[in-house]
Amino acid sequence: MQKILIIKVGYSETLDPEISNVTSYGDVLRSTVLLNLYKNEHVTWLVDEKAYPILRSNPYITRVLIYDLSSVLQLQAEHFDTVINLEKVPGLCALADQVRAWRRYGFRFDAKTGQAEAYDGTHAALNLCKDEKQKRSDSRYWQEHLFEMVGQQWRGEEYVFGYSPRTREQYDIGFNYMVGNKWPSKVWPTESWQQIESLLGKDYSISWQQGLNDMEQYFDWINSCRLIVTNDSFGLHLAIAMKKKIVALFSSTSFRELCLYGQGTVVTAGNCLCSDHPCHQPQCRFSSKLCSPAPEEVERAIRRLLEHTDPAAELAERLVSIASRQRQSLDEIRQFSSTDCVTTPTIPE
User: Fold this and answer.
1) SS3 per residue for 154-190
2) Which of the four, 8, 125, 130, 269, has the lowest number of CB atoms within 10 Å?
3) Burial state string for 54-75 with b = 16 or more CB within 10 A and e = fewer than 16
4) Hey, what's the torsion of the CAs at 93, 97, 102, 106, to 10 degrees?
5) CA–CA separation, 258 vs 143, rounded Å?
6) Which domains does the chain have, with CATH numbers?
7) pTM, whole model, 2 decimals?
8) Checking DSSP bridges between strand 264-268 and strand 79-85, what pairing results, if any?
9) For each successive 10 residues of the chain (349 residues), what is the average pLDDT?
């Protein structure tokens, strides 16, 4: 059994250039896809204290260490077979270099510049962080980049989440309307949420986001909903991990790296004024209403997902849609898009 150290605290998103003290919960959760490669090994995961509930009870993690001085000193005294550093914070890169190990993947510390650099296999990911134009045009799934960083090929492996349900499904639709402070441009206008509620409220039971100040309650709320309508946020990745039906709303960020594992669809803005949409900017330069999905499109997407009862027919529709989308221009994709992972060897239930 090998000893594996994964450094994913949550201070920097793996494929984005920004570094902050705001923990990216979604990036921590989706990084758990790597655990499929090490499920028979002794895995230690270093994480920020606020993100600890995401990793609690994970069946493939032997030990979770909270990032603080004590854990840093402990890791510097241990020996590992493999260190995987998914953080670009210079101090964490320096720590990854100092931990004794036979193999290292991810990001390293450049002693000359004081910045993050790439171990072998991570240059493509680092280039995406540095080149916004390349990131906007990149069409590979996020998981493909992550597996490439550790010298492996992604074959449809899913997130690994240790949550044990404490609630049953009570609502047809959950409105995951909040976004983090880091990316306010991702938010869908309140009036659009209210419009959707008026369009669907007579036919379906609807619940607005709960557990805003308690992550465990947030998990329970996601689990209580049959379908989640969500911005590009932590709740989107929770819904994927819990295998919920999903309508994902994208405005300022790209949907291309997202794999929904056949669980839903993406709706994007069709009338944005930005010449470089999606802009990947925290603040919208125009009206958020203009750079957001149309409520009527979102309503249609919700009804399609909730009214589908034949899994085979749904799969066939997705495959036809994907084949057609390959022939469409970028402008057409902006008008209609539904992204699914069709490279998965098995179709999730």
Assistant:
1) CCCCCCCCCCCCCCCCCEEEEEECCCCCCCHHHCCCH
2) 130
3) bbeebebbeebbebeeebbeeb
4) 20
5) 9
6) 3-149 (3.40.50), 171-335 (3.40.50.2000)
7) 0.80
8) unpaired
9) 96 66 89 97 97 97 97 97 94 94 92 79 56 61 90 94 92 90 72 94 96 95 97 94 95 80 88 58 56 86 84 53 47 45 40
